[in-house]
Amino acid sequence: MKLTKKIIAAALAGCLSLAAQTSVATDLVPYFYTWGFGNNAYQATSLMQAKSQAGVDGATLAFGISGGGCTLGGGLEQTINDPIFNKDVQQFVVSGGKVVLSFGGASGQYLESTCSEADLLALLRRVVTSLQIYNLDFDVEGSQLELPALNNTRHHVLAALQQQYPQLTVSFTLPVMPEGLPTGAMTLLTSARNAGVNINVVNIMAMDYGSGYTAMGSHAVSAMTNTQAQLKTLFPTKTDAQLWAMIGVTPMIGRNDVSTETFTQADARMVTDFAKSKQIGRVSYWALQRDQVGTGSLALYSTINASNYEFYKIFAAVKGSSSSSSSAASSSSSSKSSSSSSVSSSSSSKASSSASSSSSASSGTCNVWKEGVYYAVGTVVTYNGVTYTTLQSHTAWVGANWTPSATPALWNVGGRC
Hints:
Elements: H1 2-20, E1 27-28, E2 31-33, H2 47-54, E3 58-66, E4 72-73, H3 78-81, H4 83-94, E5 98-104, H5 117-131, E6 135-139, H6 148-164, E7 169-175, H7 183-194, E8 201-206, H8 216-234, H9 240-245, E9 247-251, E10 254-255, E11 262-263, H10 265-278, E12 282-283, H11 310-315, H12 325-340, H13 342-352, H14 355-361, E13 367-368, E14 374-375, E15 380-383, E16 386-390, E17 394-395, E18 411-413
Parallel strand pairs: 1-12, 2-3, 3-5, 5-6, 6-7, 7-8, 8-9, 9-12, 13-15
Antiparallel strand pairs: 3-4, 10-11, 14-17, 15-16, 16-18
Helix pairs in contact: 5-6, 6-7, 8-10, 12-13
């Protein structure tokens, strides 16, 4: 019984340590119409084309909804079933691109309303394992935001899925006002937290406020600020830096169907500057295909672009934003480690020693670090003759160049095999 308690306590400490660490940079992942793949009406007909034309290295694929009963539809099914689209997505990931798979949206029937918990779990498991993409987003809005049964189904499934795949990240894309999240959105987040879901990002839709709202950049900044304050009430043990790292923002670039709302290039610069100063977790926008020169349908154009990918290039400044909460968490972890026991103190000493002494201090036979492998927290490997220990669970994507020596947020020098 005492041994069991020790194991549980150790596991809990590991979970808390992992939860305290945040992303090392702000992700820029604009929405990409999956139904627009290969459509020459858009400048961006594929992810790899967007990458070659504008250096795009992140995208949110929209959307996954019911294709009839508990089957995947809405466009996201093409990432699995269309060999050309599937190859494009895989090449994008291998080249270092980040992909988020988004479910839900403003229209269509949500999978949560057509699937049992067991069936939804099986469906999501097939999606993430077939694509080897472990970033899921759930865009919940409109009347579906107010349905507790849907929330319960989704959140039970996500908690189970994260237990099976520790590297799985979950974000919720939610409606917002400049004053913050509405009651329904807060209820959803509370439900997810209580179900045991590790919420990585709360992505607010900084748009569709209604008539009378015109200063879109300022309203987005207010919405982020007030949402961060609301998250503090849900996660009181998190630091301000950790809460900012949970914030995502998604404006609709250019003109909106709400005629008074136009998100300009100046608004984009304002949001970029604020996001960078606060080191938020995610910046997105609706949508990459609209980020092109032209006038006409709002599904095709922002209508205000002076050049193709103009908004992406403005927002790209956030990608150099590093999170300070990781270093704070590492410092806290090091402090706890040095005070808990002589073994922990020895480990901390090794972590701060030179590479050669760390390597010689290791014992046993370590696996050599390789790309394409999933590494759980605490895994010890060797790389170029030096021993490293994993700080965060992650997959070393092929082509991402996440070598232990180049990613101190993921690996610590030292360890025993």
